[in-house]
Design a protein that fits this description.
single chain; alpha/beta; Muramoyl-pentapeptide Carboxypeptidase, domain 2; 2 domains; 4-stranded mixed beta sheet; two-stranded antiparallel sheet; 9% strand; globular; binds zinc ion
């Protein structure tokens, strides 16, 4: 394959994954070998730092990458920060921090962790594989988990990135989207499931998070995506709770909060 085409594909992939990585790749193009890698990493680090400084002028702020204590959210994995996927509009981050404070009040010491949020810049630039995370107004939260003995796991999820550890309805219960045909982003990741550690869902904390958000305690209007059987099994109801449909990603491994349509 011609070199130019390979570089084009690499730059496109980095742009899709990180928004800014493709630019760093292009900046390194005049170099070869070790120098190429060094220039790429330096350019990416410079763009990463510049984005953190510049994003607020464009209406988005970075969700913290490391633990900030129980009253503020932080990303579950530093990977979200490294890939520029941790940007949200300030009111959305404020709401997430209000949730963290509530969780700390209800279960002292609890850490509320976020997953994919949005890229730092541009409206309508989707954060794949999430089609809707394109404007800083959407934020995913990790569920809460305990170890096999039932002790709450501080700031950790069942899977390393927080996604794909599905809380499927028990066999025999109604399975959402059974029989769906055609293209769908509803991945089941069946091969991954047996590899995940035995960490049961912390049901009291996860239910409290859902309940607090579904009650609209700040009077703000928004939607929450969660699988209906899971919300029902946690005893949570509310107009905010929606089902994302059978063509979108499952929401029985994380919670999706969305301020605007
Ligand atoms: Zn989401």
């Amino acid at each position: 394959m011609p070199r130019l085409l390979l570089h084009g594909m690499a730059a496109a992939l980095l742009t899709v994954l990180t928004q800014l990585g493709g630019l760093a790749w292009l900046a390194a193009l005049p170099f070869r070998g070790f120098r190429f890698l060094a220039v790429f990493l330096l350019a990416y680090a410079a763009l990463w730092g510049a984005a953190r400084l510049a994003a607020p002028a464009f209406g988005r702020v970075a969700i913290p990458c490391t633990d900030q204590g129980p009253e503020r959210v932080a990303e579950l994995s530093p990977l979200y920060c490294a890939l520029n996927r941790n940007y949200a509009a300030p009111p959305l981050l404020d709401h997430a921090n209000a949730l963290a404070r509530h969780m700390h009040a209800a279960f002292p010491g609890t850490r509320t962790r976020t997953l994919d949020a949005g890229f730092p810049f541009l409206e309508g630039f989707p954060l794949l594989p999430h089609l809707s995370h394109d404007d800083g107004e959407k934020l995913d939260f990790a569920f809460f988990y305990s170890d096999a003995a039932g002790n709450y796991l501080l700031g950790r999820a069942r899977s390393p990135l927080g996604y794909f550890a599905f809380e499927a309805p028990p066999p025999g219960a109604a399975q959402p989207c059974d029989g769906t045909t055609g293209p769908t982003l509803r991945w089941n990741m069946a091969a991954l499931q047996p590899l995940l550690p035995d960490r049961p869902l912390d049901r009291p904390r996860t239910a409290e998070m859902l309940r607090w958000l579904a009650a609209h305690p700040t009077g703000r209007d928004y939607k929450l995506f969660v699988e209906p059987p899971l919300a029902a099994s946690l005893g949570v109801r509310g107009d905010a709770l929606r089902f994302q449909g059978c063509r979108a990603a499952r929401h029985d491994d994380h919670l999706h909060l969305q301020f605007h349509p």
